Amino acid sequence: MDQFQFFQNPPSPPDPQALALVSPAATAGAHAFHSAIPGYAPTPLVSLPAQAKALGIGQLWVKDESKRFGLNAFKGLGGSYAIAEYLCGRLGIPVDEQAFAALTSPSAKEKLGEITFVTATDGNHGRGVAWAARVFGHKSVVYMPKGSARERLENIRAQGAQAEITDLNYDDAVRLAARMAEEQGWVLIQDTAWEGYEAIPTHIMQGYTTLAWEIGQALDQPPTHLFLQAGVGSVAGAVAGYFAGLWGDRRPVTLVAEPDQADCLFRTARADDGQLHFVTGDMNSMMAGLCCGEPCTLSWPILKHTVSCFVSCGDGYAARGMRLLGRPLEDDPAVISGESGAVTAGVLAGICRSPRLASLRQALGLNEDSRVLLISTEGDTDQENYRRILENV
Rounded to whole angstroms, what are the CA distances from 68 to 39, 164, 173, 181, 201? Predict the structure, then answer.
């Protein structure tokens, strides 16, 4: 049996100041900006009625982010909006539905010159930053942690980035990117925050809320349950915080899942001492997009007050979710979801079907009336591993 631990987080009133960063009002400019990018379309919100019935719940929706801007993952939302905020700030213009056209104009390039954006990534974030930098006519440098898939490296290079796999873990690769930005005069576009580095991560989180805005537009009532995956917690905080602002007391019961090799949020929640708890050393999970050992200082205050349950789980739950979504039941559509994208589906199935998790199922209120929302944050970004998992019965 794969590792599975959970911590039920005591409910508490949300922090208004933290929620304000990703409120519908504060993030309206993000979806206005994204909607003007050529090729933009809301990603599919897929309904899986046969799977819902098999799990003993009322409805199951999956937001399929593999269809985002041709990047096979959601991360381009954050990187593009953060870069746009930086460039528009330099030009003194607002970030709105006119910003994309303005930033890609010859006059903008003439005024700005050529800027180099730098980041660390396990794959999807770096690909999004490289894509946005290329689209706006600038350069990018991307550092990846050891063990990163070669396919993800080549996908980043295909966007014009200078990219390499380092011998560092993710968090040390972030420190390398930050140091190089300072030494070379580059602009760091990192999807986590720490003291003194908060403006750009705030804009990245605000960019992520476009997918939450699309969900709000597509549903006629809130889901009862929201299952989110987390690395540093930026997208989980953005989505949970946005929905708290949108739906208030009707917001869904929220669960956050992490790999047991990089469960910094789980450890922080369980410790309950007011301190952030880090995971160090190698993080050998196939959920590469979630192998981050240090919580984002901006998202934790949101997650602390909006998440009902934190889960630390082994790779088997990700594999189970990949097969559950990729080999659908009856007439349900298939969702191609990678290791980090599918873990919440595996966790949901485990909670719904495992007798040893019956108490957790009851505590979360998962039953035949539940309407559960999952976000598949990536497609098959490591195709070799994806095929191997789906072929393994």
Answer: 9, 24, 26, 28, 20
